[in-house]
């Protein structure tokens, strides 16, 4: 198992982390808001349509989908439109296509958009939704950490903008067969797509206790991590966990219910992040972003978790610092990684109007930077 600090070793991560089980992120803390997000989504959903789960899913259970208009409400719509400044002749990569809400903003502004997602169901949905834009919209299935492998990039094209709106969509959270929800019976899956390296069942039934404690504590900020991991170990020796409710009930029995938040909320979030190697993918994507953008191209990143935001903030701070200085150096030295200019010095937070319309937005942060033209 590989333990990595996401900031200090960002470039090393690019080369080594893809096959690692997960990254260790010591001492970083994050918002409990994010941990509540999946519960909130589940509570808000309305089932209205039934389709069959795509073949890569671990269970061929029916998937209960919401109306297509409810697929996912994009966060920061006005800010994304303004900071991306999409328009005719512009080429934008939407690294997290999801329901296609942000992509549609860019398409309406006249841009050409490539939508990337690791979830084939999201790609199929967005292709249908955005079909009216013809060949101005195309898709690529894969992890955004693999940006340099996108055919357009391989052919030498560079984008005017790259958006990453991190995490899972409302649709993914609300579909029982995807296994993200602790309120709906489904397989313990939690993969965003077939490229995710493991299922939640593998983690819950096979990982050593110490690793379970660590992800619950670090990714979930779960103060009862030890008690929950102990209960999981005891239960799995009797019978392996199969469903989301098996796990949610085990957690509830172990730590009880306090307040309105479901006791499994933080554990589900932590397992989801480990299943999909979310921090590792982000670290690699940041390191690769300059290879996908034109000089002057814009990088917009929306985070929902303080570990993610810290990774983005430190990356951008380092890459936008022209000179490095340390006590003991006779003078500041040029930063060899200097690449970006911060367009907004601080993270942008949603206003009260957006939060009341879209409660999911409350823990969102947007950071915006521009790739420098260092050739002139
Ligand atoms: C929050 S949703 C994006 C919603 C989208 N902006 C919209 O307007 O509908 C995140 C989407 O990104 C995808 N995703 C998350 N991490 C990814 C990664 N590392 N590579 C590719 N897709 C990813 C998820 O599958 C999900 O569909």
Helix and strand element order: HHEEHEHEHEHEHHHHHHHEHEEEHE
Largest sheet: 7 strands, mixed
- Overall 3D form: globular
The number of distinct structural domains comes to: 2
Bound molecules: S-adenosylmethionine
Strand content: 5-15%
CATH superfamily of the largest domain: Vaccinia Virus protein VP39
Count of helical regions: 15
**Main structural class:** alpha/beta
Mean pLDDT: 85
List low-pLDDT spans: 1-53, 60-69
Helical content (DSSP H or I, runs of 4+): 25-40%
The largest beta-sheet arranges its strands as: 5-4-3-6-7-11-10
What is the second-level CATH architecture of the largest domain?
A: 3-Layer(aba) Sandwich
Gap between N and C termini, in Å?
44 Å
Structure commentary:
It contains 15 helices and 11 strands. With 376 residues, it is an alpha/beta fold. It is globular, with a radius of gyration of 21 Å. The model is unreliable at 1-53 and 60-69 (pLDDT under 50). The structure holds S-adenosylmethionine.
């Amino acid at each position: 198992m590989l333990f990595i600090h996401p900031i200090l070793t960002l470039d090393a991560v690019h080369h080594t982390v893809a096959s690692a089980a997960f990254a260790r992120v010591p001492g970083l803390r994050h918002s409990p808001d994010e941990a509540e997000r999946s519960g909130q989504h589940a509570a808000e959903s309305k089932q209205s349509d039934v389709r069959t789960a795509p073949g890569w899913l671990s269970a061929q259970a029916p998937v209960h989908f919401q109306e297509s208009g409810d697929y996912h409400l994009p966060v920061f719509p006005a800010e994304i439109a303004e900071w991306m400044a999409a328009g005719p002749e512009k080429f934008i990569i939407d690294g997290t296509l999801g329901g296609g809400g942000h992509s549609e903003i860019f398409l309406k502004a006249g841009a050409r958009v490539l939508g990337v997602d690791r979830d084939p169901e999201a790609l199929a949905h967005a292709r249908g939704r955005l079909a009216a834009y013809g060949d101005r919209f195309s898709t690529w299935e894969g992890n955004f950490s693999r940006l340099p492998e996108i055919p357009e990039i391989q052919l030498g094209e560079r984008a005017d903008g790259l958006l990453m709106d991190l995490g899972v969509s409302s649709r993914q959270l609300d579909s029982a067969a995807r296994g993200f929800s602790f309120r709906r019976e489904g397989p313990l899956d939690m993969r965003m797509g077939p490229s995710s390296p493991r299922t939640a069942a593998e983690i819950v039934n096979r990982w050593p206790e110490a690793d379970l404690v660590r992800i619950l504590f670090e990714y979930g900020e779960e103060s009862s991590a030890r008690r929950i991991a102990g209960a999981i170990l005891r239960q799995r020796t009797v019978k392996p966990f199969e469903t989301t409710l098996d796990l949610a009930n085990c957690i509830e029995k172990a730590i009880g219910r306090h307040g309105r938040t479901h006791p499994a909320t933080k554990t589900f979030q932590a397992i989801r992040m480990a299943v999909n190697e979310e921090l590792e993918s982000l670290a690699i994507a940041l390191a690769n972003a300059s290879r996908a953008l034109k000089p002057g191209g814009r990088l917009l990143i929306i985070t929902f978790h303080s570990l993610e935001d810290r990774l983005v903030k430190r990356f951008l701070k380092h890459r936008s610092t022209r000179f490095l200085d340390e006590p003991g150096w006779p003078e500041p030295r040029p930063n060899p990684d200097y690449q970006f200019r911060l367009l907004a010095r601080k993270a942008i937070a949603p206003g009260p109007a957006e939060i009341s319309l879209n409660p999911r937005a409350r823990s969102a942060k947007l950071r915006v930077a521009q790739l420098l033209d260092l050739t002139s």
